[in-house]
Amino acid sequence: MKLKEIYSDKTPKPVISFEVFPPHSDYNKLLKEIKILKNYNPEFISLTYGAGGKGGKSFELLQQIKSLGINVMPHFICITSSKESIESALVKMEQTGVENVLALRGDIPDTDIKHYFDFNHANDLVKFIKDRTNLSIGVAGYPEGHIESQDLFSDIQNLKKKTEAGADVIFTQLFFDNQKYFDYIEILKKEGINLPVIPGIMPIISEKQITKMTSMAKITVPHIVREKIEKYKDDLKSLQNFGIDYATKQCIELIEKGVEGLHFFTLNKSYSTSKILDNIKGEL
């Protein structure tokens, strides 16, 4: 089922989806985690996928996930990809039965990774995919602005280019302050962007995780979260439990406000996400 159908007005309850990434080794461990997550009836699993980089290994994992009876939405990163590699990968995706892709610019690569200039921005990639395939296209949105953007307004203008190029759904970067998401939705509406905007949820599991994420992206960490991270930084179980409780409250408020879906960044682990979904099952 395509994204535009998954997130339709006819959907009676929020759609659940997960993101995973290809591990350096031991796909079997990840597949065990995915089998647990499958019990929560996700509409799809989003799989990080570098069409011009490690696409081969990602494609192998994509096939294994599909063999479990789960739809997969691969990522396409344009900054490290040539038009030829993207076109070849798109053909392979459609032949495999993939219906949805997430089109991203990607991070500027290190000097040892080849940087192509066929696509400079994600909207270029969206148009390329739209013109050549029947795939449904998701794109990224940033409630607090992309880290490279001058400000939130200029970032939203970039998002508008992606929607005008043919995007069907927007998936947000993670956030810990729901008000940032609600404010973002209102601004998008004023800018004429009316696509489904699916909130990205990442359970807190460690101090290292939060430090890494906040160094890579514009993410406000509320005082209560910083306080608990400091309190439990040497007690991972307690911090994990706090992360579950905090994300549960986030999800309940988002559902009450009528979100069309919840997209969980699982970090390839099922435990926290499973607990959150158990906590909110009465809301779904």
Tell me the overall shape.
globular
Radius of gyration: 18 Å
Number of strands: 8
Q: Structural class, from helix and strand content?
A: alpha/beta
Structurally, how many domains make up the residues?
1
Proportion of β residues? 15-25%
Order of helices and strands: HEHEHEHEHEHEHEHHHEH
- Averaged pLDDT: 91
Number of helices: 11
Kindly state the percentage of residues in helix. 40-55%
**Spatial ordering of strands, largest sheet:** 1-2-3-4-5-6-7-8
- The N- and C-terminal alpha carbons lie at a distance of 20 Å
CATH architectural grouping: Alpha-Beta Barrel
Major pleated sheet = 8 strands, parallel, barrel
* CATH class type: Alpha Beta
What low-confidence regions span 5 or more consecutive residues with pLDDT below 50?
A: 50-55
What is the CATH T-level topology? TIM Barrel
Give an overview of the whole structure.
With 284 residues, the protein is of the alpha/beta class. The chain has one domain (14-279): TIM Barrel (Alpha-Beta Barrel). The protein has eleven helices and eight strands. Strands 1-2-3-4-5-6-7-8 form an eight-stranded parallel beta barrel, surrounded by four helices. Helix 9 runs antiparallel to helix 10 (236-256) and helix 10 (236-256) packs across helix 11 (271-280). It is globular, with a radius of gyration of 18 Å.
